[in-house]
Amino acid sequence: MTDQVAVNYLHAFLERHPVRNYKKGEIVIFQGEAPRSAFIVKKGIIKAYNLSVSGDEKPVAFYSDDNAFPASWVYGKVASAIYYYEAFTPDVEVYVIDREEFVNFIKKRPELLYQELERLLADQMGGSLRLNALQHSRASDKLIYTLHYLALTHGKPASANNIEIILDLTHQDFANLTGLTRETAATELNRLKKKGVINYGKHRPYTLNMSSLMQLQNDQFIADIQPVKLAV
Question: Which domains occur in the chain, in start order?
Answer without folding.
Answer: 3-116 (2.60.120.10), 136-227 (1.10.10.10)
